[in-house]
C-alpha cells in the first residue's frame, strides 16, 4: 500500500518546503523506498506557464511537457527521477476539471460546491500517482501558508484523506519558522504555536514539526514546541540555515527526520541510507581546487529564482570539475557596445539566458559579439541560442535586419521564425513546443565531443525556431547546426567552428541536470571556462 506524507507550511512563505520535501524523499530513496513528490499550488492559473518569472521564479518543464512550479526542479535534482504533469496541480486545474464535469452533466441535479466536489477532486489528484502501485511513499507539498484563504480546500482534503487512509498510512509534517529576536537574545516559539493552532482548527494535527531557525534549538525550546503543539519531542526537527541546499538531506538525517517518519508510517527503517554518491558530490562541491567566473546575461536578473535550474546546473558542473563557479547575474539591458568589455571583464565564460520579448535583446547581442570575437567560451540557452543566430546573421553574414519573428514580425530576414503549426494559435497557455524531443547529433562536432553520442533527448519550451532557409549560408560562414530534430529537421544546436567553445541549444539542458547526472553541456562549458582562465 502507498503511504502518504503531507508537507504544510506555517508562519511565512519561502521557508523551503520544496527542499525539505526533496531532502526527506532523498533519505527515503536512499533507504530503498520508491518515492515521488508532488506539489499542490493554491493559485488559480492552470499552471505557472503564463506567469512572469518575477511573480513565481522559473517555470520548470517536465519530460511530458508540463509547465510546473520550480520546486519540481528540486525534486528531480535530488531524486534523479523524472516528474510529470501529475506531480503539479493548481487550484485552477482542479476547478477547470470540476466545471467541465458540471457542463457535461456529471453532477446533474446537484449543487456543485467546494465541499465535497472540489475537495473530492483534490483528493483524487492527490492519490493519482499512488494508483500505479509504483511508489511506496508519496510526498505531497502544499503550496502557500496555512491560514491563507486559498489553501483551505487543500487542508480540508488532507484532513479527509487522512481519515480515509486510516491510521499509520499518512502523516503531516508542518514546516514552520522559529524566529530569533536579537534584542531579546531568544528563539520564539509563539508563531509556531499559532500556526499549529490554525491547522488544528481545520482538524489537522501535525505529526512532525520541522523548524526553520538561524540558531540551534535547545532541549528546552524543543520541549516547549512539543508540549504546546501536541507532538512527540523526537518529532521536533531542527532545520538550521545551511550553506548549500544539498546539505539539507544530511542535516535531516542527523535529526532523524526519515526515521521518525518511517516509524510513524509503520515502515521499516532497518536499511541504513546509502548516501555515498551524495556525500561524494558534497565533498567535491565544498573542496574546489579552482574557481571560474561566469556571467549570466539575462533580463530577469533581479530575481535569481528566475534562473534556478541554470544556477543549480552550474553547481553540479562545478562539483564535477572540482571548481567553484561564481555566477554574476548581468542585466542584459545594461550591456552596451561601449561598456561590454568593462561589463564582461574578468569573466571566464558567458551564458546568455532563456527569455521572452524584446527587452534586453541588444545587450545580449552586444555580449555575444564580444565573446565571439574574443574567443571567450559561450553557452546559449533557448533565447540565448536564438540571439547567437541573430548576432551572427547581422555581424558576420551582413544581414543587417536579421531578427527573430518574436521581436520584429516585419523583418526581411527572419532567421528565427514562427513555425507554420504555431501560426494559428491564439491561446497563450501550454501552446509552445514543450517537453522532451529527440535530437540527433552530427559526428565530429563539439556537441558530439560533449555528449559522446549521436542520439540525445532534451526538454523544450519555446515558440520560435531556427529558419532553415538560412542554414546553408550560416554553415558556409562557420556557424554549423550540430544537432537537429530527426523528425522535423529543426535545428536544435548551433556551434562555431573556429572558436574554443561557442555552443548554443534551442532546448533547456538545465532542466535535466541533477546531482547524480550533471549535464554534459554545463560540465563542458565550465571546463572550457577553466581552460580559458588558465590560458590567460
Ligand atoms: N522567446 C523565445 C521563444 O519563444 C525563447 C523562449 C525561451 O528562451 N524559453 O522561442
Automatic annotation (TrEMBL):
Q: Which GO terms describe its cellular component?
A: cytoophidium; cytosol
Identify the metabolic or biological route this protein is part of. Answer: Pyrimidine metabolism; CTP biosynthesis via de novo pathway; CTP from UDP: step 2/2
Which Pfam families does this UniProt record tie to the protein? CTP_synth_N, GATase
Molecular function in Gene Ontology: ATP binding; CTP synthase activity; glutaminase activity; identical protein binding; metal ion binding
Give the start-end ranges of region Amidoligase domain: 1-267
Q: Which UniProt keywords apply?
A: ATP-binding, Glutamine amidotransferase, Ligase, Magnesium, Metal-binding, Nucleotide-binding, Pyrimidine biosynthesis
Highest taxon listed in the record's lineage: Bacteria
Show the catalytic activity. Answer: UTP + NH4(+) + ATP = CTP + ADP + phosphate + 2 H(+); UTP + L-glutamine + ATP + H2O = CTP + L-glutamate + ADP + phosphate + 2 H(+); L-glutamine + H2O = L-glutamate + NH4(+)
In the Enzyme Commission scheme, what number(s) does this protein have? 6.3.4.2
GO annotation terms (biological process): 'de novo' CTP biosynthetic process; pyrimidine nucleobase biosynthetic process
Does the keyword Disulfide bond feature in the UniProt annotation? no
The protein's name = CTP synthase
Give the encoding gene's name: pyrG
Amino acid at each position: 500500500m502507498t503511504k502518504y506524507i503531507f508537507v504544510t507550511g506555517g508562519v511565512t512563505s519561502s521557508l523551503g518546503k520544496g527542499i525539505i520535501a526533496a531532502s526527506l524523499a532523498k533519505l527515503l530513496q536512499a533507504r530503498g523506498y520508491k518515492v515521488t513528490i508532488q506539489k499542490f499550488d493554491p493559485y488559480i492559473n492552470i499552471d505557472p506557464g503564463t506567469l512572469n518569472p518575477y511573480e513565481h521564479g522559473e517555470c520548470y518543464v517536465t519530460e511530458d511537457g508540463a509547465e510546473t512550479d520550480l520546486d519540481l526542479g528540486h525534486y528531480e535534482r535530488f531524486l534523479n527521477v523524472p516528474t510529470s504533469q501529475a506531480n503539479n496541480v493548481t487550484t485552477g486545474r482542479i476547478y477547470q476539471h470540476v466545471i467541465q464535469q458540471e457542463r457535461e452533466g456529471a453532477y446533474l441535479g446537484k449543487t456543485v460546491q467546494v465541499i465535497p466536489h472540489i475537495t473530492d477532486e483534490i483528493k483524487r489528484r492527490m492519490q493519482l500517482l499512488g494508483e500505479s502501485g509504483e511508489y511506496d511513499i508519496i510526498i505531497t507539498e502544499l503550496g502557500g501558508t496555512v491560514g491563507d484563504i486559498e489553501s483551505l480546500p487543500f487542508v480540508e482534503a488532507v484532513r479527509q484523506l487522512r481519515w480515509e487512509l486510516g491510521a499509520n498510512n499518512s502523516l503531516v509534517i508542518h514546516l514552520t519558522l522559529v524566529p530569533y529576536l536579537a534584542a531579546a537574545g531568544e528563539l520564539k516559539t509563539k508563531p509556531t504555536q499559532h500556526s499549529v493552532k490554525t491547522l488544528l482548527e481545520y482538524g489537522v494535527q501535525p505529526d512532525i514539526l520541522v523548524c526553520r531557525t538561524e540558531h540551534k534549538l535547545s532541549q528546552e525550546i524543543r520541549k516547549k514546541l512539543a508540549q504546546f503543539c501536541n507532538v512527540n519531542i523526537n518529532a521536533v526537527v531542527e532545520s538550521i540555515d545551511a550553506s548549500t541546499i544539498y546539505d539539507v538531506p544530511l542535516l535531516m538525517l542527523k535529526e532523524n527526520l526519515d526515521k521518525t517518519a518511517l516509524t510513524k508510517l509503520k515502515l521499516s527503517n532497518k536499511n541504513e541510507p546509502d548516501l555515498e554518491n551524495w556525500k561524494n558530490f558534497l565533498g567535491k562541491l565544498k573542496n574546489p581546487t579552482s574557481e571560474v567566473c561566469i556571467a549570466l546575461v539575462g533580463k530577469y536578473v533581479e530575481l535569481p529564482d528566475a534562473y534556478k535550474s541554470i544556477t543549480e546546473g552550474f553547481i553540479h558542473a562545478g562539483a564535477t570539475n572540482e571548481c567553484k563557479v561564481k555566477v554574476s547575474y548581468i542585466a542584459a539591458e545594461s550591456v552596451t557596445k561601449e561598456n561590454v568589455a568593462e561589463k564582461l571583464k574578468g569573466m571566464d565564460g558567458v551564458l546568455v539566458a532563456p527569455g521572452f520579448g524584446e527587452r534586453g535583446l541588444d545587450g545580449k547581442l552586444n555580449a555575444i559579439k564580444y565573446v565571439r570575437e574574443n574567443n571567450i567560451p559561450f553557452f546559449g540557452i533557448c533565447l540565448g541560442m536564438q540571439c547567437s543566430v541573430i548576432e551572427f546573421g547581422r555581424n558576420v553574414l551582413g544581414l543587417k535586419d536579421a531578427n527573430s519573428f518574436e521581436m520584429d514580425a516585419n523583418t526581411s530576414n527572419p532567421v528565427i521564425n514562427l513555425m507554420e503549426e504555431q501560426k494559428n494559435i491564439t491561446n497563450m497557455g501550454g501552446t509552445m513546443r514543450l517537453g522532451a524531443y529527440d535530437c540527433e547529433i552530427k559526428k565530429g562536432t563539439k556537441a558530439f565531443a560533449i555528449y559522446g553520442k549521436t542520439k540525445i533527448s532534451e526538454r523544450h519550451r519555446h515558440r520560435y525556431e531556427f529558419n532553415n532557409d538560412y542554414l546553408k549560408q550560416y554553415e558556409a560562414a562557420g556557424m554549423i547546426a550540430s544537432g537537429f530534430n530527426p523528425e522535423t529537421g529543426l535545428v536544435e544546436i548551433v556551434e562555431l567552428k573556429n572558436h574554443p567553445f561557442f555552443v548554443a541549444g534551442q532546448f533547456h539542458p538545465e532542466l535535466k541536470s541533477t546531482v547524480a547526472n550533471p549535464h554534459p553541456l554545463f560540465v563542458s562549458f565550465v571546463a572550457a571556462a577553466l581552460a580559458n582562465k588558465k590560458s590567460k
